[in-house]
Amino acid sequence: HVQLVESGGGSVQAGGSLGLSCVASGFDDRPYCMGWFRQAPGNKREGVAALSRTGVNTFYANSVKGRFTISRDNAKNMLYLQMNNLRPEDTAMYYCAARGDNLCGSWDQQSKYIRWGRGTQVTVS
């Protein structure tokens, strides 16, 4: 089975940084658009960032733009999210996800992501 496994979450003080990683395994085909999503208590899951297959095109939620950086290493089947200047409102469970296509223009359409990780908790205080 295809699996996405996130790591790197934890607790950090406001203004600090965390780097999240997502390891993909069991892919039959090369991954296309991939993204990070998050869900805070009481909120719906929202898109954080996404990038195209080659990593050339990136997309960010306005709330994280300028603070977070998404990247990938296809040779290692890895997806990354570097989070800087973290704020308490960034506290959430963060999920790695992969689409079955490379249509990152609709990067925040969650229904198009067919593979999801189980999440890693990020807590900012």
Molecular structure report:
The protein has 125 residues and is mainly beta. The protein contains no helices and 11 strands. It has strands spanning 3-7, 10-12, 18-25, 34-39, 46-51, 58-60, 68-73, 78-83, 92-99, 113-116, 120-124. The strands form 2 sheets. Strands 2, 4, 5, 6, 9, 10 and 11 form a 7-stranded mixed beta sheet that branches. Strands 1-3-8-7 form a 4-stranded antiparallel beta sheet, with no helix packed on it. The radius of gyration is 13 Å and the shape is globular.
Order of helices and strands: EEEEEEEEEEE
Runs in which pLDDT lies below 50 for 5 or more consecutive residues are none
Give the % helix.
Answer: under 10%
The helix tally amounts to 0
Structural class: mainly beta
Rg on CA atoms, Å: 13 Å
Q: What portion of the residues fall into strands of 2 or more residues?
A: over 45%
Counted beta strands: 11
Alpha carbon gap, first and last residue: 36 Å
How can the largest sheet be summarized? 7 strands, mixed
Mean pLDDT: 93
Task: Tag the structure with descriptive keywords.
11 strands; 125 residues; four-stranded antiparallel β-sheet; mainly beta; globular
What is the structure about, briefly put?
By secondary structure, this protein is mainly β. It is 0% helix and 48% strand.
